Amino acid sequence: MKRRTFIQKTAAGTALAGLGLPLTGFTSDVKRLTVLHTNDVHSYIDPFPADDPRNPDKGGVARRAALIESIRKENPNVLLLDAGDIFQGTPYFNYYGGELEFRLMSMMKYDLATMGNHDFDNGIEGFYEQLPHASFGFVSANYNFSKTILNDIVKPYRIFDKNGIKVGVFGLGIELHGLVDKKNYGETVYLDPVAVTREIVSELKNRQKCDLVICLSHLGYEYKNDPAKISDVKLASLTSGIDLIIGGHTHTFMERPAVVKNAEGDDVVVNQVGCYGLNLGRIDFELSEKPVSVGGRSIVV
How far apart are CA 7 and CA 294, in angstroms? Predict the structure, then answer.
């Protein structure tokens, strides 16, 4: 299929120029895709109490599920993604070991997730034991699981066909050495995310002919005190071919996505919605033969 370009309207009708990108005319022959995303939910199932000093009466899986369902009624062509650290943070994880998180995400019909460092907290075996409760898959291109029980289970990428829109989604994870106990990640081998990205994007764009390439990243948004450390912003600037990076790890609250120039001078949209299920990221694409304009926002749960 000929590569389409993307025109996006924000969920609340915010002007696309808000991201510094031109608003082009719409045509009647368009296909719509809504990308919804979370990151670093950390086993927060219940909403924060009304007297919480920082997040009073916010979050909660039931509210997120209702919000997702309302968006699906508006546009059934939805891709729901998570950028890792599903586990660890409340007694629900300590007691159920991740079963509850996976069951609830399955009920919300998540399409795909990547692995964060805390998803190793019960070891690879503990993660593996909970996979029967997940109706969605996991992707990670720079964790080599070939010598572990996750071999051939966690894939480098996955391709979705959403109403004729071919979407390639790949995952990236942060360096585990020094961050996660070696016994928890075992023989998992960390690969350079920049080199891996170049290879995967070439596969998705050139051979698979994807219309849209999304990176589910648990690298962290940006490290201003350590500019050499790989992050979403640095990854975007060093590579080409990624359209959207959905990030995690640094718990960065962004009201709307950032736009970063890639190695070829093209725009890459980068977004992250904080942590604990307090926000739901939403980006609405309309596909036509017109040039690209992209926007988006975080919705408070």
Answer: 6
Rounded Cα distance between 145 and 139, Å, is 11
Euclidean distance between the first and the last CA atom of the chain, given in angstroms as a whole number: 37
Angle, helices 61-74/99-107, rounded to nearest 10 degrees: 20
C-alpha span between 261 and 264 (Å, rounded): 8
pTM for this predicted structure: 0.90
Q: Whole-angstrom Cα distance, residue 59 to residue 38? A: 12
- Taking alpha carbons only, the member of 236, 301, 247 closest to residue 271 is 247
Q: What is the pLDDT of residues 20-45, one digit of tens each?
A: 443 344 445 677 889 999 999 999 99
**CA distances (Å), origin 107, targets 46, 66, 100, 285, 289:** 16, 11, 11, 25, 35
